[in-house]
Amino acid sequence: MPSAMPADLLDFFSKDNFSCLDFDDVTSLDKTQIQTVVKSIDQISAYCLAAIGHKQITPPKDLALRTDLWDRTYSGLSKTIDHRVLENALEAAASFVECSYPSASYQGRMSMAFVTVLAIVVDDFAADSHGCEQLEVFSQRYLRGLPQPEGACATMAESIRDCDEFYGSKYPRTGTLTAMTWLAYIDACCEEARLAQELPCHFVSDCSRDRPTEWSVEKLARYVRDTSGAPAAYIVPIFKPTHDGEVPSEFWISGMPDLTQFVNHTNDLLSFSKETRALENFNYLSLLTRARRQVGRASLFDTNDGLWTFRDTLYETWDQFINSAIALDRLFVTFAESLSEKFKAAQARADMDGHKEETDMNLKSEQQNLENARLAAKYWKEFK
Description:
mainly alpha; 68% helix
């Protein structure tokens, strides 16, 4: 699919005030530069979110959800996680779920908020050498049915089982999809922890400058992100808001590639300001920037050495994000509209035929398809 708005977006990124983004290593920035970069990132975010029709809606805080979530997480994490850290993770998870899944039942919101708190905790836990050692064998122990160490690992295992049961209540494979995604996420947290300590040897060698541009090193960032972003675990709940009600997967599975890119890039782009302040240089945007420079990719902008910079990575990532949103609008919203027209035509034919039994059966089937398509479109628009 062609770019959503190639000229406008490229022109926007080409403005002189975004030249502050022409760097390749966030750790080289001083405090003043960081403030300037963060301000530019926020301006870009506002522009691009408006381009997809995003409207920030902040629902009232569900105090019961927060109370129950605290009671459920406190018992398993209070001995290993600082209370302030746990409180911040709980609020972030509850707010995210309320905004992203407004149609979800209380049980659905609790299930997603619970596992999201654990995902935040596990991400920090992996940065500790002792925590990383426990997490590196988490998936193996989980799949073998072995007990997990008390604290973050045991509570994460509980939350994964909870997701498996809730999201697999009608179609077991969707529950399995969420569970396996969370296992992959934990393994990816360990991989990111290793990357934080030392990048792969190919990232510190200059030999790649003489290789073809389509070098494997450019693909590592996407590989890590596809697991560390846990996209499927956040996609399934879009279409299964309650324990007994969900949109069958045939009405949304075609969108998985774009949904995956949308979910991953949402995380990449909206957390970049925070990661810039923390001088984090092993995230998706940093890894991709470094890889592109190493293989000699030329910048789209007027830079000192002509090589790829963070501005190029941000432009490319936002462009992909916008294209995914437009593709998903077509897949869900436009498709539902087309089915509505098809159903109206089928109704007209049924009226002309006198509503024969076979005609009515076909009409009932098409009506069910239309209802599922409309629900898929509704849930997607809520999530977006």
